[in-house]
Amino acid sequence: MPYLVASDLPAKSAGRRFRALLQRPGILRLPGAHNGMAALQARAAGFDALYLSGAAMTASMGLPDLGVITVDEVTFFVRQIVRSSGLPLLVDGDTGYGEALNVMHMVRTFEDAGAGAVHLEDQLLPKKCGHLNDKKLAGAHDMAAKVAAAAQARRDLVVIARTDAAASEGLDGAVARAKLYMEAGADAIFPEALHTEEMFRAFAKRMPGVPLLANMTEFGRTPFFTASEFEAMGYHMVIWPVSSLRVANKAQQELYATIAQDGGTHKAVDRMQTRAELYTMIGLHEYEALDQSIVETIIPEGMPQR
């Protein structure tokens, strides 16, 4: 039903709903959704929660993932995904957009926009994708201060601390940072860019009782593992951060090449979402029904022949 109807809105906050999902048996699967349509499609596929990737957001804007976007720009994406899907959303908060006070502002802004969880990373600006080389880390205690600020600012929002330390400080350094971040008030830990099953298992073994998030991004340092395999390694959440954007971008690239080559879209129609499928996904008729003065739209059948 449309989000305009008050009775259709969840009674519990997104943070509480995200926590409830974490308490269920099994691993929480969080596919990336880079806009409202992707969120609707993920919900239709049966997912209970979603992930909003900073890399996907920036790429969809034609920008690199170097920490150049702002809290307000991210909030635009948060609102449309939450509004369209109604699902609890984990948001990539990068480095918090500044120091402790900036982190508190980010947390309150994202939570007010409807986010259920946020993760915060221990890189320095300009930050980069966690699977790239030469990442520069903040001091562990500086990052712990940001985590503490986030925990103090939130109402129900789940705070996940990400550490990129494995690449430069090894597993020992990553574990030490993770423990410090938990002491500072994090609800869960995200060890980024682990690259073997042994590393994933070892990290989980050294963080008993702590909810852990795994990142199954493509074309990175982590080999392909399934959700059930991550669960067997001791992980409680898994994200596929940029997958939806990668597929959409590839399809758009092929479409534009087809138009340029053939002078039209007639050879690509079989690969398109139809008008009827689009209207069903966005609930057009349900919106129309809210206002009896709007006549129900009649969808043209097929395409005219010449």
Can you walk through the features of this model?
The strands form two sheets. The protein has a five-stranded parallel β-sheet with strand order 2-3-4-5-6. The protein is α/β, with parallel strands linked by helices. The protein contains twelve helices and eight strands. The radius of gyration is 21 Å and the shape is globular. Helix 7 (166-184) links the parallel strand 5 and strand 6 (188-191). Helix 5 (100-113) packs parallel to helix 6 (140-153) and helix 6 (140-153) packs parallel to helix 7 (166-184).
What's the end-to-end separation, in Å?
39 Å
**Tally of extended strands?**
8
User: Secondary-structure element order, as H and E?
Assistant: HEHEHHEHEHEHEHEHEHHH
Instruction: Quickly name the level 1 CATH class of the largest domain.
Output: Alpha Beta
Instruction: Count helical runs.
Output: 12
Could you give the order of strands across the largest sheet? 2-3-4-5-6
Q: How much of the residues is beta strand, in percent?
A: 5-15%
Poorly predicted regions: none
Shape: globular
What CATH architecture of the largest domain do you see?
A: Alpha-Beta Barrel
Helix and strand composition category: alpha/beta
Mean pLDDT: 93
Number of domains: 2
CATH topology of the largest domain: TIM Barrel
| Fraction of residues in H or I helices | 40-55%
Specify Rg, calculated over alpha carbons: 21 Å
Biggest β-sheet: count, sense, barrel?
A: 5 strands, parallel
Can I get a quick summary?
The chain is α/β, with parallel strands linked by helices and 306 residues long. It has helices spanning 14-22, 36-44, 54-60, 71-85, 100-113, 140-153, 166-184, 197-205, 227-233, 243-262, 275-282, 284-289; strands at 28-31, 50-52, 89-92, 117-121, 158-163, 188-191, 213-215, 237-240. It contains twelve helices and eight strands.
